[in-house]
Amino acid sequence: MPDPSTSSLPALHQPVVFVDTETGGRDPAHHPLLTVGLVTLTPAGEVTRPLHLRLRHAQYDVEPDAMAVNGIDLAAHDAAAQPPEEVADAIRAYAREAGRVMLGGHNLSFDTGFLRPLLPDLSTLFRRGRVDTKLSAQFLIHAGLLPRKVGTGLDRLAGHFGFAYRAHDALEDAAVTARVYAELLRLTAQSTSNRE
């Protein structure tokens, strides 16, 4: 029997690029975007093309609470980071290689709020539709396909599907979000086949 975590996703006809960000706070107008993680979920159910980018800033206006959550050491971060223009170009190159596909994430509006200042052309890089696993999970809870006790937090969803997960690393968050989305698709497909 094939491993369900790597089986194909028949309803997924093109890849989806999943993104996550780590930031210095909650307000994109005041706090810096620090890291961006990108992965691609293929119709074969594989999470591929991991890319982790760090942004260098002239100054870092950060909230202590945000830094406690993301665990980023700013001195080490700054030494390894790239200028924002280089990060933007790397994301554009990543998107070009994937083709004009959907962008996905967990609570994606937070991430896109920080990505838009970096990428004013964000809406042209990806299709108009978006995938948000937080909203998808809420829908499946309302539909009775996902237990209410699981909730919509990424850590809770990852645990429900049996994924080991250490939160608040942009690349790891993007990868686990893609895996959770694949499991949500499989859950829906299983429910549909049970009704037929």
From TrEMBL:
Keywords: Exonuclease, Hydrolase, Nuclease, Nucleotidyltransferase, Transferase. Coiled coil: none annotated. GO terms for molecular function: 3'-5' exonuclease activity; DNA-directed DNA polymerase activity; nucleic acid binding. Its EC number is 2.7.7.7, 3.1.13.-. Residues 15-190 form the Exonuclease domain. PANTHER family: DNA POLYMERASE III SUBUNIT EPSILON, PROTEIN NEN2. This is DNA polymerase-3 subunit epsilon/ribonuclease T. It comes from Deinococcus budaensis.
